[in-house]
Amino acid sequence: MEPAMQRKMLTIVMGLASLLIVHVNGETSLPFDHQKLTSDGHYLDQMQKMQAFKHSLLTRRQLATPPTISSSPAPAPQATNQPPGSRPSVYEVTTYGADPTGKLDSTEALLRAITDAFNGPSEGFLMKGIKNLGGAHINLQGGNYLISKPLRLPAAGAGNLKISGGTLTASDDFPTDGYLIDLSASSSSSSSYNYEYITMKDLMLDCNFRGGGISVINSLRTSIDNCYISHFSTEGILVQNGHETYIRNSFLGQHITAGGDPGERNFSGTAINLMGNDNAVTDVVIFSAAIGVMVSGQANTLSGVHCYNKARGFGGTGIYLKLPSLTQTRIVNCYLDYTGIVAEDPMQLTISSSFFLGDAFILLKSINGLAEGINIVDNMFAGSDTGIEIVQLDQSKGPFKKIDQVVVDRNNVKGMNLKATVARGSVKGNGTSWTVDFSPALLFPNLINHVQYSLSSGGATFPRHALRNVSGNRVVIESDIAVPASVFRHGGAGQRELTLACVFWGLQKSEL
Question: Which residues, if any, are the signal sequence (predicted)?
Answer without folding.
Answer: 1-26
